[in-house]
Design goal:
By secondary structure, the chain is of the alpha+beta class. The protein has 20 helices and twelve strands. It has one domain: Cytochrome p450, CATH 1.10.630. It binds protoporphyrin IX containing FE. Protoporphyrin IX containing FE binds next to helix 15, helix 16 and helix 20.
């Protein structure tokens, strides 16, 4: 890819299967046109680190709530994926966003996350044992299905009170819902996400009713009780945010663990140091978040006219924040194309920033920091067993299958 690739071609290629597989040269092609790139009237693409960071904190830029979606995707109201998504905190703006975030924030304080550590260590230990059984005698194992998905699913299952035997069955629905976040050319593309969302809505409506009748110690019981005591949320808003927690709490952490393992396999020196010294895990995970992020792009829309680093932005402008490009901005990072787990002051954009900063950031980091050294130490000869496949997605990008031999 040369720097002469015109921006529209680069954007089109980015959304093709080839672009999704390796988007990084295309980000460089776009960066050649500057950190803020107008793509015709009403559309702006941002590739700079400082610019993405500011945009995430800019109150004039809105997340994709129902009113924004009316402007962007007429017809969306006939689709249950987006009907439910626009009732959760990620796809809402104030005053609703503050209300949701206050309500659910109590469950994700640093203290509560830290208290989960022993349970997480136990869950991960059990899943590493399971991986050893599956890979006995050199049998290839799909690391994504058998470990990278199961770790966060077990964590969210434990938090939300989803029985262990039901957990593996959620993978298809969770994955299908994330496809609704991809740019939509044709509303029919939302069909898989709609069906999956309907399925999860039935599950969580029922779960909330069961926990209301017989409360347990899980988060669903706690939040149902809080809702009934305060009336701060409608039942539908409660269910919508439970679904967000399950999907956000599973798919992206799965990709973080998958990407981190792949990077370990590609960088045996770094992997060896991490095997020796698990205290290096935070640096390794942070660099994975920067270098090959599970979330590559975020969308915003301008609520009003405003000036953005000298670029006039009109109300209604659609702003695409290519945070994965921002993570490789040479103005922010020395040698941005080098995977360097020892990098100081990382500040990756992958967990967002500002009002929508990832609510589960601490939990995501903790599970990856525990899971990765546990796998590497248990299997010193771990090796790829064939080429991995990528899911055909950019917003939430990761491996479909990653076959390994657990040596
Ligand atoms: C590596 C793993 C993860 C990544 C890359 C990730 C990424 C993100 C990003 C980029 C956003 C904000 C999107 C925006 O600004 O438009 C976000 C928000 C959110 N994330 Fe995460 N996330 C991860 C793990 C988790 C986990 C484990 C949970 C739950 C336990 C979680 C729950 C949430 C929630 C509830 C929000 C909405 C926050 C709000 O709108 O105020 N995430 N995440």
């Amino acid at each position: 890819m040369t720097t002469a690739t015109d921006p529209r071609t680069a954007m089109t290629t980015l959304l093709s299967p080839r672009g999704k597989r390796d988007p990084y040269p295309l980000y460089e092609a776009l960066r050649a046109y500057g950190p803020i790139l107008p793509l015709g009237p009403g559309q702006l693409v941002v590739t700079g680190h400082a610019e993405c960071s500011r945009a995430l904190r800019e109150t004039a830029l809105l997340s994709t709530d129902a009113a924004v979606q009316d402007a962007l995707l007429p017809g969306w109201r006939d689709h249950s994926s987006w009907r439910w998504l626009t009732r959760n905190m990620l796809f809402s703006n104030n005053p609703d966003h503050d209300r949701y975030r206050r309500f659910f924030g109590v469950a994700f304080t640093p203290r509560r996350i830290a208290a989960l550590r022993p349970a997480l260590e136990g869950l991960i230990g059990g899943l590493v044992d399971r991986l050893a059984d599956l890979g006995a005698g050199g049998a290839p194992v799909d690391f994504m299905a058998e470990f990278a998905f199961r770790v966060p699913m077990a964590v969210m299952g434990e938090l939300l009170g989803i029985p262990e035997e039901e957990q593996p069955g959620f993978r298809g629905a969770i994955g299908a819902i994330t496809t609704a976040l991809e740019p939509v050319q044709d509303l029919a593309q939302l069909a898989p996400g709609d069906a999956a969302m309907d399925q999860l809505a039935v599950y969580f409506t029922d779960l909330a009713a069961r926990r209301r009748a017989r409360p347990g110690t899980d988060l669903v019981s706690e939040m149902v009780r809080l809702r009934d005591a305060t009336g701060e949320l409608s039942e539908e808003e409660l269910v919508a945010n439970f679904m967000l927690l399950l999907v956000a709490g599973t798919e992206a952490p799965m990709d973080l663990i998958g990407n981190a393992l792949r990077l370990a396999l590609e960088h045996p020196g770094h992997a060896a140091r991490l095997r020796e010294d698990p205290s290096l895990a935070p640096g390794f995970v942070e660099e994975t978040l920067r270098f090959d992020p599970a979330a590559q792009a975020l969308n915003r829309m301008a609520a009003e006219d405003f000036d953005f680093f000298g670029v006039p932005v009109a109300a209604g402008t659609k702003v695409t924040l290519l945070i994965a490009a921002g993570n490789r901005d040479p103005r922010q990072y020395a040698d941005p194309g080098v995977f360097d787990p020892g990098r100081q002051g990382n500040h990756a954009l992958t967990l967002s920033g500002g009002a929508h900063y990832c609510l589960g950031a601490g939990l995501a980091r903790m599970q990856a920091e525990l899971a990765l050294p546990a796998v590497l130490r248990r299997f010193p000869g771990l090796a790829p067993a064939g080429e991995p496949t990528f899911r055909d997605q950019l917003v939430q990008r990761g491996f479909g299958q990653l076959l390994v031999k657990c040596g």
